[in-house]
Amino acid sequence: MPEALTYVLDIDGNPLMPTKRCKKVCRLLKAKKAKVVKRTPFTIQLLYEPDSHVVQQITLGVDAGSKHIGLSPCTDAKELYAEDAKLRTDVSKKLTARREARRTRRNRKTRYRKPRFNHRVHSKHKGWLAPSVEQKITCHLNVIRKVTKILPVSKIVIETASFDTQKLKAQLAGQKLPEGKDYQNGEMKDWLNIRDYVLSRDGYTCQCCKGESKDKELQVHHIHQRKDGGSSRPENLVTLCKHCHQEYHKGNIELPDKILKPASFADAAFMGVMRKTLLERAQTEFAPIPVEETFGYLTRAKRLGHGLAKEHYVDARCIAGHPEARPAQTVFFSRKVRCHNRQIHKFNPSKGGIRKLNQSAKVIMGFQLFDKIRYQKTECFIFGKRTSGRFDIRMLDGTKISASVSWKKLKRLESSNGWLIDKRQNNIVNIE
Q1: Using one digit for the tens of pLDDT, what is the confidence trace for 387-427?
Q2: How far apart are CA 271 and CA 276, in angstroms?
Q3: Which domain holds residue 241?
């Protein structure tokens, strides 16, 4: 049987050391000397002042990333918690959809309004970050805060990384790694702008039709769109004539197979942007808990030296400095979801120009979106709702359980708070 840990708070809500004495926890709950404050992870709060309590030194390792976060608070001998948190990757696309909706509305309603480019937020607030980056930094702080509320963490260690994209590009192309002045002698040396370079590289010829369209106007096309993380690097640009460019965006033609999408360095760029900001904000928010920084090559050396598997929560245990600690028997997997949908109307009007509402009631039959529920002895989540009281329920990873089930067959376990969380038994153990 896996040993289950119960996380304990004192009467004032301060975290104490967790316990595995399940029978004592049951006695305290029955005697009303404690109450349940959280179901996942299971946390109770004492309703009396204990005679004494001993708090050990706990180091929280944080494996920061652009898509996943690994968390592992450890003592010298034991791992007390393990979590793999998955972040959102749709923020940029949502912002693009919002921008399109606003522009079309302004075109319909206020065509006289002049653009105000000097009022952009990045020109008013120094240190401004893109919303997609800001949201991920906030998620890092949220998951760290969640752990510090259930465990008496004495030190936080965050792994931050800075990537050399020039070396990454050279490795993928099988070229010599740049050194010294090689960084100043890039492929665009002596060129005034990137457009002229791309046109010259492609021989001033459309790479789709090779001039068969007879269209002499040439344009530069982004192979990997900017809204999907593509940049204006030369390998992400290709020369197309105006006719092929328009037909491609209409979906009438496809680019030749030889025009391959280049590797995306969006994750590497994100880590370079957020590393200093995350460390500074963590040091400010979690004071007086000391927050330290470590690097990926140190984590990798510890993991390989102890023969551990490559998992985010395993890396976090190595970051905490206790790779030999006994791993937790339960691993929590969480996923960030959107909390609000502020789109009022659907994008495509129905016949007659009627713009239908896009929103329904927040709570239907006592259930709301992303609530954790039980259906036929299976714990899952609500991913879709209808006013009739029927719901689309799925597992944490999106596996569909039922596309339409009545609310009468559901039992709510936890309310939605922006995070879906579930637990699984940990099958990764240390190799002796």
Answers
A1: 899 999 999 999 999 999 999 999 999 999 999 999 888 87
A2: 9
A3: 178-261
